[in-house]
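re: ur question from yesterday

yeah so i grabbed the chain u mentioned. its 654 aa long if i counted rite. heres the sequnce exactly as i have it in my notes:
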Amino acid sequence: MVSVNQLTLDFGTFVLFEDISFLINPHDRIGLVGKNGAGKSTLLKVLSGLQKPTSGEVTMPRDFTIGYLPQVMKHDNRFTVFEEVEQAFSDIKSLEKEINRLNKVICERDDYHSDEYLALINKLTEATDRLNILGGQDYKSRIEQTLKGLGFHSSDFNRSTSEFSGGWRMRIELAKILLKKPNLFLLDEPTNHLDIESITWLEEFLKTYNGAMVVISHDKAFLDNVTTRTLEISLGKVYDYKVPYSRFIELRKERREQQLAAFRNQQKKIEATEQFIERFRYKATKAVQVQSRIKYLEKLERIEVDEFDDTKLNIKFPPAPHSGKIVVEGRHIRKSYGNHLVLDDIDFTIERGEKVAFVGKNGEGKTTLTRIILQELDHQGNIKLGHQVKIGYFAQNQAELLDENLTILETIDKVAVGDIRTKIRDLLGAFMFRGDDVDKKVAVLSGGERTRLAMVRLLLEPANFLVLDEPTNHLDMRSKEILKTALKDFDGTVLLVSHDREFLDGLVSKVYEFTNKKIKEHIGGIYDFLAKKRMENFRELEVSKSPDSINSASSSKTDSPNNGKFAFVERKELNKKIKKAEKEVVSAENTIAQIEQKLEEISRQLENPDNATDNNLFEEYQTLQKEMEGKMVEWEKAHSLLEELKNVRIQMDA
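ran it thru and got these structure tokens back, copy pasting raw so excuse formatting
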């Protein structure tokens, strides 16, 4: 489908990729991983056509569509949220204008039998048919569903995009890309500004999406949930594993161990052979054996061990100065921005040594309460810091606040005081800024490198209460693991605002959930909290169900004198409907299976480079894809109906 052939990209003397090749197949779910600075974001730019390689090429079918979500983007402030997302349906909007124009022209004519009039009618019919094919009847409801899935409320739809923060603007852009339904998604850190509920929604969307996907993410749980293949970029090469991220880590380790074992064995054989040649090189009686071994070495295919980039972040927080038992305590905290109430009558307590997480949807007040704790915001109620509490704060936008005109060394030298000034280079080296790297300007650093630099600043002064607002954004997997270990080992108190489930797992023992202007305390880890939430939501759903919405007959079971007769007739009719729905589900599933088999056969053919320009194959593939989308909609409707009918039967039996 998309072929990357012998791709090389260099910047002067620095080679980012060298002669890499791989294929992206029609239904691939690819996680693109590697350390910060390995070239992941650059590779997505090359695939999207925004960056030209030094050599090699990227080929794809004609009319192939790509949806690219970069980490950093330019925003347009002219539209409301809904209007901005509507840009995804520009072709539909153009068709609607053309249909309106044609209708107006037709209404003004009365030459009903002329060729010109009939030609206009044909154009109108074609435009209307195309509008229906493109989903012109329901695109507004699809916009609404997608925006709500990404955390927007109906009241946000008519607000100007300029009123929203960068994270919410990214969601708007993500909504546009999802609604365009391209053949290939290229998503660079899509979860960075999403809360846990929105990440879950995005996971479900991507798991059922019919196209291909290449995603960069440092969220291990997200990668495991949505990907089935992993491409690792390491030291200019790409390693391809047909498994999700967690399994890739295991296989990479096993593969390297096997390579090392095979390499050592081969080296022993080579050494023994060379010793034999050297020992008997000049003995006529051994000439044949010597020549045979020389030829053996010449023909031997040498085992190569994959290069492995083992540079890693080395973090150890300074010992925490002693503080009082109560680190921070809030009573009756209330905060409004104008008429917008964010927090209402909040009580909480964080004690010495606790590791606590703030979680909840974006906009529910997590960062606001954090800033109140830091005494950066005016508020109602009382906030009290404990005895000798010293705060170390990492802001959500900490990396963005760095002065781009300074070098790495100057950034740290500017804030370092005392004896630590003599150890600045050692400290930077521990954070993978070594040698000449320290002379790089902040402006040229990647997001992960800026985050690491901001973390160095956090270590310059000892603290006993670390307040970290989204510290893992832009950090690679290994750096996150090392930061997590350092926080586990930290003997002070930690408050984390984060949506990264894997990062919080095993680290925090108490969760504060922010919802509806209140907070709720949950004792236990993050997955304990998520499990409880699923149970709570289920109970709420059951309680909120109205008997009238189930079946009017079930509500009248005790009211009618002919209840038994009616119940029998209704049950019989209901069972007929269930059987019919079951047949429709099975029929749709069988058809989908047949289409999938055909798609797999064509996919295998398309993997052959000889078929790379076979337009007939691509057209057949696209036709089957559209047919698949239609059948999936049929299956979803039939399956939903079947579930509803079964629920009604359960209610009747109750």
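noticed a couple things. The two ends are 53 Å apart (CA to CA). also The first strand starts at residue 2 and ends at 11.
anyway ttyl
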